[in-house]
Amino acid sequence: MGIVAGLDSSSGFTRIVVCDADTGAVLRQGFASHPGMDAAPKATEVDPQAWLLSLGEAASGGLLEGVQAIGVSAQQHGLVPLDRQGALVRPALVGNDKRAQVAAADLVEGFGGRQAWAEAVGCVPQAAQPVAKLRWLARTEPEAAARVAMVLQPHDWLVWQLLGRPVRRTTDRGAASGTGYWSAGSGAYRPDLVELALGHQAALPEVLGPAEAAGTTPEGLLISAGTGETMAAALGLGLEVGDAVVSLGASGSVMAVHHEALADPSGMITSFADATGMHLPVVSTSNAVRALRGTAEMLGVEGLQELSALALKSTPGASGLVLLPYLEGERTPHLPHTAGTLSGLRRESMKPEHLARAAFEGMLCSLAEAMDVLRGRGVRVRRVFLLGAAAELPAVQAVAPAVFGAQVVVPQPADYAALGAARQAAWALGVSQGRLSPQAPPAWQGASAQVFEAGEELAGGQAVRQQYAATREQLHPGAFS
Predict the structure, then answer these.
(1) What is the CATH number of the domain that holds 112?
(2) Domain assignment present for 332
(3) pTM
(4) Which residues of 252-275 are buried (b: 16+ CB within 10 A; e: fewer)?
(5) pLDDT tens for each residue of 31-42
(6) What is the dihedral of CA 15, 44, 93, 71, to 10 degrees?
(7) ω into residue 477 within 30 of 0, thus cis?
(8) Is the residue at 25 inside a domain?
(9) Cβ(15)–Cβ(7) under 8 Å?
């Protein structure tokens, strides 16, 4: 029996799980906040040394005793710029930094538009992506930009540090697919896009295969390729072809496992790679739980649990009320300057429970339309994993199966990114020992979960979808064409 560890360096903390390499059973866990995050919880610039300090604290007390391999998951879209000697040029720019919005728009225009980008690298530049951050750096800090000789992401940098800063620097296809200069379709970098953004060429880390090891520490500890948090969580959840994940945050996203990369000329699909050799096309919405919170405030109810209870007093279709939840504009469909709309007001529908129901149906219908974008490109969805605190709300669990037209799975809360990193470590360890095939990760027990079927409510869900789509088409004709 082997022992492996997975560490997840998120935006504010490090979580470590130590697992049995054969079964995935969690043996020990560690946690530590990143230094300084209490004072600046939404910092857009970070000294990467904080990640190492947090890692050391989380692993204290002999947590890693007996561990043979480590996998690293980390926050995505961060930019760690290094000079020729491997020293930090400036603090790392992390994913929540939105200052590169103008830079992203410049890149889209400078490379021939959204379709050209989608065909080149499977995504259209967004402010969070490293390619946009490089353009921002070149425009606002040209002296620093001129010194950049190597570009890493957070998980790349952590792996490099754990290995003792070797000459070889690595990443994996999952993290690389979010940069804006690596194509999940071709499996290759586009150095010309780095030069377009930064103004000159920069070295990029070697992209490892899913079961490859990045190296071995001086103490003999194997370090697997690592990956981004999204890909690690998918691996930790045990997602397979036919599975989709709907993430319910302030904004929302729909992600599915697919056998090929999808180039989407509209730019609505971002074509990520996963951590197993498959692909994770993602469609994002600008609005999800923020629509619920706004409705709760409008109705004067205390929190989302009370809003959920109120919604369940209504019936499917909310007595004709339809809420288009485009409160912050919308990405899917591409309506960046629109606003939300409440439609179908009649005397009989003007009750708090109907508005509460319309908020849940509007949020889930919007995400179902995002899912339809994937289904329209041949992505099969047989079950939907719901993630986020709102997935626990009874109204979400009651409405989602019928609206999505699929079985809905609500996993029990767990450190899925860290578990995915540990599973990757077990895979690389097993391959190095000749026990496992590089073609398939170890078969760990799946996540504990509640399962909800559409059942008799399916027809009602289809009617809700039709009512929502008719309203959206009336107000925003051709939005999905």
Answers:
(1) 3.30.420.40
(2) no
(3) 0.93
(4) bbbbbbbeebbbbeebbbbbbbbb
(5) 999 987 665 556
(6) 10
(7) no
(8) yes
(9) yes
